[in-house]
Amino acid sequence: MKQIVLLRGVNVGARNRVAMPALREALKEAGMGEATTYLQSGNVALDSAAKPDALARACEELIAERFALQVAVVVRTRAELAKVVQRDPFGDVADQQKLYQVTFCARKPDRAALAKVAERAVEGERLLAHGREIYAWFPHGVARSKLAAQLSGHDLGVVATARNWTTVTKLLALAGG
What is the widest separation between alpha-carbon atoms in the chain? Predict the structure, then answer.
């Protein structure tokens, strides 16, 4: 089964540096199948029969062992990612894919935590939670958005990692969708 492995916070600045060729090799040696990476920010498509949560834990353990890093991992199956793309709630307004993000959560965030994060939205920003995904549109940019900072931090109370729409759709294509 094709699965998408999303590493949280790797190769951002000088911390949590993981070379993608070394990661692909480590995953292959660990028996997780042939892996394809996209960009340098911890996006992997691979074949695995493991359940997504088990695969996430196995990847976290492998990264800790091989690279001496504590990196959180979120996994989605190809079918789950296809549904994320199909849903596309802001496709009609998000005219710049780099400013349209999906935050992938390890589990469904608590409603109260999500409401508190949503309070950080400024005029024009849009947010929609659906299960374990949070779609967000940042028309004024992501870098200075307080909402974006909240979504990528620990304020949701769950392990979460965000990808822009370009990356999301590219990962689906890498997974054969």
Answer: 48
Distance CA 143, CA 20 (A): 24
- Does domain 2-78 fall under CATH 3.30.70.270? My reply is no
User: What are the pLDDT tens digits along the chain (177 aa)?
Assistant: 899 999 998 877 777 889 999 999 999 999 888 899 998 889 999 999 999 999 999 999 999 999 999 999 999 999 999 999 999 999 999 999 999 999 999 999 999 999 999 999 999 999 999 999 999 999 999 999 999 988 876 789 999 999 999 999 999 999 986
- Domain spans, the chain: 2-78, 82-174
Edge-to-edge strand list for the sheet holding 160-164: 126-130, 133-137, 100-105, 160-164
82-174, CATH topology level: Alpha-Beta Plaits (3.30.70)
- Is 82-174 in the same CATH topology as 2-78? yes
Full-model pTM: 0.94
Residue 72 backbone dihedrals phi, psi, to 5 degrees: -75, 145
